[in-house]
UniProtKB/TrEMBL annotation:
<dbReference type="InterPro" id="IPR036390">
    <property type="entry name" value="WH_DNA-bd_sf"/>
</dbReference>
<dbReference type="InterPro" id="IPR036388">
    <property type="entry name" value="WH-like_DNA-bd_sf"/>
</dbReference>
<feature type="domain" description="HTH marR-type">
    <location>
        <begin position="11"/>
        <end position="148"/>
    </location>
</feature>
<dbReference type="InterPro" id="IPR039422">
    <property type="entry name" value="MarR/SlyA-like"/>
</dbReference>
<protein>
    <submittedName>
        <fullName>MarR family winged helix-turn-helix transcriptional regulator</fullName>
    </submittedName>
</protein>
<dbReference type="InterPro" id="IPR000835">
    <property type="entry name" value="HTH_MarR-typ"/>
</dbReference>
<dbReference type="Pfam" id="PF12802">
    <property type="entry name" value="MarR_2"/>
</dbReference>
Length: 157
């Protein structure tokens, strides 16, 4: 039986600050998008569909879920809500009866183009303001190291 390695006081403070930061930042970014008619979940899907490596602004449902690290049911429900508002379309996959594509519509493209400037400015203000280039680089190294451990742990490395 292995012995639990409890967090020391400094680790505990850092961990709780990280959890609190993540929750408050997500909530604030969501509120920041309210005037655009998009939720943070809408925005995340629109960003995924407009990434440079996405051909024709279309992804398989499972690919979208993998990119966002969302459960299949969450992707399906969010896409259904967005399709009802005309932001995306769901298309059947010709070579897989169970599969489907999510495709960005003109309305979806217009929505992300309208929302992106204020969203990016809010991210800059809340997250990057006051950080030096070295601190930003350190944050990137830290984030990538944790992401690598997560990938190794899940076998996706």
């Amino acid at each position: 039986m292995s012995k639990t390695r409890w967090l020391n006081d400094e680790e505990q403070r850092a961990w709780r600050a990280w959890v609190d930061l993540n929750a408050k930042l997500s909530a604030r970014l969501n509120r920041g998008l309210q005037g655009t008619g998009l939720s943070l979940s809408d925005y995340e899907i629109l960003v995924a569909l407009t990434d440079d490596d996405v051909t024709d602004h279309s992804l398989r449902m499972y690919e979208l879920g993998e990119r966002l690290q969302w459960e299949k049911s969450r992707v399906s429900k969010q896409v259904t809500r967005m399709a009802a508002r005309g932001l995306v379309e769901r298309r059947d996959c010709a070579d897989d009866r169970r599969g489907a594509f999510v495709e960005l519509t003109e309305e979806g493209m217009a929505a992300i183009k309208a929302a992106a400037p204020s969203h990016v400015e809010l991210v800059r203000t809340l997250f990057f303001e006051g950080l030096s280039p070295d601190e930003v680089a350190g944050l990137a190294r830290f984030s990538n190291a944790v992401l690598a451990r997560l990938a190794d742990e899940s076998g996706q490395g």
